Amino acid sequence: MALLEVKNLSVSFPTADGTLHVVRDVSFSVEAGDFFGIVGESGSGKSVLVQAILGLVPGAKLSGQALFNGRDLIGLPAEELRRIRGAKISMIFQDPLSSLHPQYTVGQQLVEAITTHQKVPKSEARSRAISMMRKVGIKDAERRADSYPHQFSGGMRQRIMIAMALLLQPELIIADEPTTALDSTVQAQILDLLSSMQRELNTTVIMISHDLSVVSRVASQMMVLYAGTCMELGAADEVFTSPSHPYTARLLAATPSVHNTEHRLRPIDGSLPSLLAPPTGCAFAPRCELADERCRGTLPPLEEHRSGRLAACFHPDTELAAPEPVIARSAGQQEGAPPIISAQGIKLSFSAGSWPHKRQVNVLKGVDLQLFEGETLGLVGESGCGKSTLVRVIAGLLQPQEGSVLVEGQELGAPNTESWKQARHLVQMVFQDPFGSLNPKRRVGSIIADPFMIHTDLRGEQLKSRVRELMDLVGLNPEHYNRFPSEFSGGQRQRIGIARALALKPKVVLFDEPVSALDVSVQAQILNLISDLQRELGLSYIFISHDLSVVRHISDRVAVMDRGQIIELAGAQQLYENPQTDFTKTLLAASARS
Amino acid sequence: MTPQKRLMVPLSLFAASAVLLSGCAIDTGNSSTPTGEAQKGGILKVGSNGDNDHLDPALTSYVPTQNFIRATNRQLLSYEASTDENTRIQVKADLAEEVPEATNGGKTYTFTIKEGANWDAADGPRQIVAEDVVRGFKRLCNPYRSSPLLGYFQTLLTGMDEYCAGFAKIEAKPEPMAKYINSAKLPGVRAVDERTVEFNLKEPAGDFIYMLTLATATPAPEEVLDYLPDSPEYRENFVASGPYTVEEYTADKSLKLVRNEAWKPETDTLRKANVDSIEMTMGLSADAVTQQLQAGTLDMSFDTGLAPSVAAQLAAAKDPDFSTVDAGSVNPFLWINVDSPSNDGALADKKVREAIQYATDKASVVQTLGGEAVAKVQNGIFGPGVLGYHDFDLYPTEGHKGDPEKAKKLLAEAGYPDGITLKMPYRNKDIEPQIAQTLQAGFEKAGIKIELIPVSPTDYYTEFLVNREETKAGKWDIAPMGWSPDWQGGAARSVFQPLFTYNGTESTYNLTNYDNKEADKLAAKAVQEPDAAKAQELWAQVDEIVMGDSIIVPVAAPTTRLYHSKRVQNFQPYALATQGDWTNVWVQD
Amino acid sequence: MSAHTLTPAAATAAPEVKQRSSLRMTVDYLLKDRASLIAASFLVLLVLFALAAPLLAGITGHPANDQFRETGLTPAGVPVGPGTEFWLGADQLGRDVLVRLAYGARVSLIVGVVASLAAASIGIMVGMVAGYFGGKVDTVLSRCIDLVMSVPFLLAALALVSVLGASLPLSVGVIVFFSWTSLARVIRGQVIALRQREFVEAARSLGAGHWGIIFRDILPNLAAPIIIYATLMIPSSIVFEATLSFLGMGIVPPDASWGGMLAEASGNSIYLTAWWLVLFPGLALLFTTLAFNVLGDGLRDALDPRTRRKAK
């Protein structure tokens, strides 16, 4: 018998706008000892699905069955569910810091996790906690048990969360995006830990992730969700290597890979259907190149097309159009030409903490960087290495204590000086978070018009037509001039951000993780847009990402940053094929496995 | 100023040389008549908002405190507590064997102290002697804290000016003060022998015997020289001469009086001392006291009055425990600022001031105060009960409701056909805002616009009325105020002198330095007139002369409203306290 | 992104679903919130009542400041109670309580709204400047806020009024002076958070000046706290005015104000016999402040879903 068997589960929310059908008629089963992966983009319903079963989503309306050891969890009283959640099912969340109490040592919290569910003497609970900490790879566990959560790194905290989840020897562990907040090297370690723990303790794990490759690495079974419906279900590695459902296939084609440099990314056009009024047919049909009348009219059932592989599609295993080849760049680095941006000996430090623990944190320790016309310089490194700070220095948002930035040979002055203002016309920036970087209370037209309002005398109709041109340039419908940012999807918002950055016709655009908050299908659209714009407008880019495959895909040269310094700088191909430093090697190794 | 609340404090400013005691008439003669034989024993429970101003009789000037002084201290002369208004204001012998006639052309008074009238000294009862009387007067101008009523005596007693000038140079410590008192001479008060004391006045004063009833004239035992006046040590070692003495006292909280065993009833015809003890609880609101009196958990009020609305109700129900006493006060009256530049100095024009007289709706103010049962329309400067009060009205209007037409006519004659605008400040306290609005409504009918200015109680006199610069600048044009004679009875002098005389130096409460030599002359005659009927005649003339100048608009004369619990029998008002006498009531459950 | 699957905004980005404006959503929410609806209706009625004050005076034949000493008072000055002549009774000077209540409503509403708007403007400016510029500016302004907050407001208000003389503008001024601080603190906190947001950084990188950022980028994002706090400031302003008037330092008689009516009822102990003098102005004050508070809470729930109570 399956440990968890979900039958025809639907989850919906009544909202002010109508009922939101988040999960529709999903069935799957997880056998004991399985490592089951659930993959989906934003809005696929993957988290809600699991949380709703466990009674963690207030206000949700559920129908169907979720049999856990043969017992239906749907409709159980809250108290009963709470007991099952504690003792039989453990959860690991994306952000370990918010799951741990900041005022207690991790040892105390681990001990408490045991003693609330089991009658065990404190000393025994502690020794069990410490041995579990050792097991999840925390060195010097005896001593570290007395540390507070903030004294651990993100990866270590996630290890502690795993230890906590394992302590009560639950029958099922649910890991909801456990590695999303972590750097790629740490991410690999945590994934390894999860799968080794699963094997060692023979626990059943359900892992939820937006990243197909992450799931395929560790899971034995995989389910792909789209718009609340199950698209494909099967052995994880097989789904990854040879998808049956066109959605899965397109998702893979949209993902940049370190190895794939000869093809353009294939984005999935269009966007997720509204969950308020889900299509009657296949949810993916509006975006699917294979879709016909049947697909749009009837919901394809989840059927076994290959052995052990189920797909909800009328055209399974169909070969899709091949991706286009990469269009050759017009300009590369021109030998001998002066750099358009030259940063020299940039040093920057913040004072952190409060008295008496005030200390200087050296974020940039003397960075030299040159950007040449027409090239894309990728900047990679783990979080906290200073890469975001560096581009902010180049953008003139932060002033370094030492060193200088030359833009077209002109020194960038302090903010609001004439030279600084002049540099606004040359250097612009696109930010990571498409939700955060657009003022939610201003209309799109006014956001994109901002640079004109600040720097030019353009007003009225002229201004409007310029804004419309820009919107057209980045692929936004100019009719949406009067909408608010919240009415756009993440990808469209990032287009708005790019349009705004291009308004003053700059020569250099700095991208700070422009696609990391986006779903894979959208990410590809934006990456292609960025490449196209560079080619059309002859722009120079500095492109930051923690994702090495994205950087590889887009960059001519790549700089690797570690702890405030550039430790390696080389042409993209050269760096990826022949890394010189250990750090770069580890970085590449971690990403290659994904 | 609030009638019945505080005696005028800055009396030393007054050039007064004599004070008469006026009658205080009981309006409704239905005060509780004894229902049987006097009963000894029991506790009299007194409720109060505030505390006594001082326990030392030399320093007190607070009307309610006079009941405490009467219970614990005796003077040479005093009054009988009585519901009969005439009896109540007749000077009676207390420590003195009799009320003496003046000799030496009205300038000398000689008293003999009763034998057996004792101090409750620490080492046993001790006869009160003539030296104690002298000591009492000698303490009045001590450099530490002088008596607020000192002025009356200093200007009258022979040699007191010199005595006090010498005392002012002494260090304000008990020892040097005692030394001065024991050594310096005060010719005006002289111990002739052990029990005989002689007063010598600079000039005759028909009212000197009234002055001797004041707490200020209380003899002082020799023990008081060991302490500063009314210091904590003084209070600790309180030496009583009346039927009660202090047993427990916590300032602003409670006071308990018990019997003084040294007091001999046969020496005291004025105090029956029926109750065994008197317990005073302080810190209660006026409404709380009223409610507790009705409930019977308190017996009498110390300093709180009865709200007009409640009084009107009780009066209507003819409650036997309710009575009123004329306080002799005029409140409100309106002072007209003749110096004000407002309306091009219109108020300097007597015609305009007369228009204001006719425009005043006195009847409505009386109604606002609680109706005829608690206030009367007032037309002269002396309130009812003050010797000199008589019923006249120089500016008569029908029903005292004011005559807007006549007022308008007078204004038009004076050159103000469109009326005038007057600034009227008022104290932001109790019923005074409503009186101001009542007056305002009346004036508007006569084309006199009133601009009301609310002023906090503490600032009213200091910032507005007595501030000559503000007055001359016209910060106010017309201002309601009140005046109480310094005590009941022939206090005409204590009304006329401070308010309506000006001899070159400014008198605080003569707001616009009003001066009428003719009135002054008549007043001087009245002060020296020993015959009450003739004095009354003279004061009445003074009243009419002042009113003829139309410097103030008298409006109403409120009565003091008295109320007590059902337990209280023989509730007889004591003139100086304008409240039932603690030493004569008895309680009956 | 698991966090976004729960929010309707992310899921309804499809073009066919028309996104409702935030105003529309707020109004919809309020219409469903019965308490807010009742409060809002009460306030509408109150405004009508205040506007109808001269009309009421005409119908009853009792102008607000006219004293009807024959019909409204007994000879002993006791006011007559509610009846056919005086619907809500007469006061201690024989004036119509109903008409005065209506004129008092005008004062309360004007003071409440004007003072709140003025206080909100100051609070917004100070809060934005302190929060945006930070550093020394913030320290100085925050200390100013602390200073104003630490002043015992009633004592200071009374002192001010007694020095400068009571009047309606002064009352409003005093109320404004003492009520901008809480909003300033809230705004400062919000701005400190907003300042870190990427869109502010984006504006800076575009070269926008400080004031441009403050007014064009930050201010629009403060709409919710401003609306909520300004609404909640109204009842406290009304109570503040009533307190001042109660202490005789607000509206100058004979003009009616609720606090003044209560003061006149209590200053004279007349409430012991004439209950209607306390009851009606008291109830008016109570229900008005209650209504504004309920509405403010409702607005908060509607504008700021994070604070919304569960189970609707």
TrEMBL record, chain A:
Highest taxon listed in the record's lineage: Bacteria
Domain ABC transporter: 4-252, 343-588
GO BP terms: peptide transport; transmembrane transport
MF-aspect GO terms: ATP binding; ATP hydrolysis activity
Keyword Transferase in annotation: no
Keyword field contains Nucleotide-binding: yes
Keywords from the UniProt entry: ATP-binding, Nucleotide-binding, Transport
Entry-linked SMART domains: AAA (SM00382)
Family indicated by similarity: Belongs to the ABC transporter superfamily.
PANTHER family: D,D-DIPEPTIDE TRANSPORT ATP-BINDING PROTEIN DDPF-RELATED, TRANSPORT ATP-BINDING PROTEIN
Protein name: ABC transporter ATP-binding protein
Organism: Glutamicibacter uratoxydans
TrEMBL record, chain B:
One Pfam entry name: SBP_bac_5
Extent of the signal sequence: 1-21
Domain of life: Bacteria
This protein's name: ABC transporter substrate-binding protein
Gene Ontology MF term list: peptide transmembrane transporter activity
Location(s), subcellular: Cell envelope
UniProt-listed Gene3D superfamilies: Dipeptide-binding Protein, Domain 3, Periplasmic binding protein-like II
Keyword ATP-binding on entry: no
UniProt keywords, alphabetically: Signal, Transport
Biological processes annotated in GO: peptide transport
GO cellular component entries: ATP-binding cassette (ABC) transporter complex; cell envelope; periplasmic space
Homology family: Belongs to the bacterial solute-binding protein 5 family.
Keyword Lyase included in the entry's annotation: no
Solute-binding protein family domain: residues covered: 91-487
Automatic annotation (TrEMBL), chain C:
Coiled coil: none
Location of the protein in the cell: Cell membrane
Transmembrane segments: 35-59, 109-133, 153-178, 226-252, 272-296
Keyword flag Ubl conjugation: no
SUPFAM superfamilies listed in its UniProt record: MetI-like
GO cellular component: plasma membrane
Domain of life: Bacteria
Pfam families: BPD_transp_1 (PF00528)
InterPro entries, alphabetized: BP-dependent_transpt_permease, MetI-like, MetI-like_sf
Membrane topology: Multi-pass membrane protein
Keywords assigned: Cell membrane, Membrane, Transmembrane, Transmembrane helix, Transport
Keyword presence, Transmembrane helix: yes
Gene Ontology biological process terms from the UniProt entry: transmembrane transport
Segments forming domain ABC transmembrane type-1: 105-296
Family to which the UniProt record says this protein belongs: Belongs to the binding-protein-dependent transport system permease family.
PANTHER family listed in its UniProt record: D,D-DIPEPTIDE TRANSPORT SYSTEM PERMEASE PROTEIN DDPC-RELATED, OLIGOPEPTIDE TRANSPORT SYSTEM PERMEASE PROTEIN APPC
Protein name per UniProt: Peptide ABC transporter permease
